[in-house]
Amino acid sequence: MRNKYVLIYQEMVQKIEKETFKADEFLPSENELAGQYHTSRETIRKALNLLAQNGYIQKIRGKGSTVIAQNKFDFPVSGLVSFKELADKMGEKPITTVHRCTKINASDYICDQLDLENNQEVWEIIRARSFSGQRIILDKDYVSLKIVPYISEDIAKTSIYNYLENELGLIISFAKKEIIVEEPTEEDRELLDLEGFYNVVVIKNYVYLDDATLFQYTESRHRPDKFRFVDFARRER
Fold first, then answer.
1. Domain boundary among 48, 67, 86
2. Fewer C-beta neighbours within 10 Å, C or N terminus of the chain?
3. SS (H, E, C) the chain
4. What does the pLDDT look like over 109-130, one tens digit per residue?
5. Which of 40-54, 185-199, 216-230 has the lowest mean pLDDT?
C-alpha cells in the first residue's frame, strides 16, 4: 500500500491540473489540509515537499505555498540553439537586457573552463531575459577573444550565434552540457525576479567549433518555475 502522503500528493496534483487549485493562488494552510485529509501536519508537509520538488507549488517563507502555472517552456537539453531561436519557437516575445558586454582578463575559474592561459582576455556578456514582465533567465557568456575579436551590445541584444555564423563565418558544431541546481548568488538576486525562490537551475555550456576548438563557456541561470528541461532518448539495441 502506498504511503498516505503519496496519495495526498497525487490527489492534489489532479486538483492543480484541473485548476481546482488555481495558478498563483495560495493553497490552504498545513492545518487546514491536515483537517481536510484527516491526517497529521507531518504527512501534509511531506506531500507539499513532493509537490514542490516536482514543480507544482512554490513554498514562500512566512506566507505558505502558491500554485505554479503549468505553462512551462520546454527547454531542449540536447539541442544547441540560440536563445533567439528558442524564443521564436515559444511564440512569446521576450525582452533581453544587456547588463555587460566588455573585454576582461579572465579569472582563474573562467581560464579553467575555457582551457586558457592565465589572464587571457575574453568577452564577458551578461544578459537577463524577461517573459511577461518577469526576469527569469540570466545568461553569462565568456567568449575567447582570439576566436571572436569583436562583439557589440547590439549584437548581444539580438543573437550572438547569428553574428558568429552569418557574419564571421564560424561553424558552431557541438557543446558539452552540465545541469546543476544552486542557491541564488547576489547577482542572481539583483538581476532576476527571485522573491520566494531559493534555487536556480544552472545549465553550463562548453561550446566548440567544427575543428573542436573550445571558444565559449556559458552559464544559463534559470528560475525553476518556468522551464521544463526535456530530451529525446532512444534505446540502442
1. 67
2. C
3. CCCHHHHHHHHHHHHHHCCCCCCCCECCCHHHHHHHHCCCHHHHHHHHHHHHHCCCEEEECCCEEEECCCCCEEEECCCCCCHHHHHHHHCCCCEEEEEEEEEEECCHHHHHHHCCCCCCEEEEEEEEEEECCEEEEEEEEEEECCCCCCCCHHHHHHCHHHHHHHCCCCCEEEEEEEEEEECCCHHHHHHCCCCCCCCEEEEEEEEEECCCCEEEEEEEEECCCCEEEECCCCCCC
4. 999 999 998 889 999 999 999 8
5. 216-230
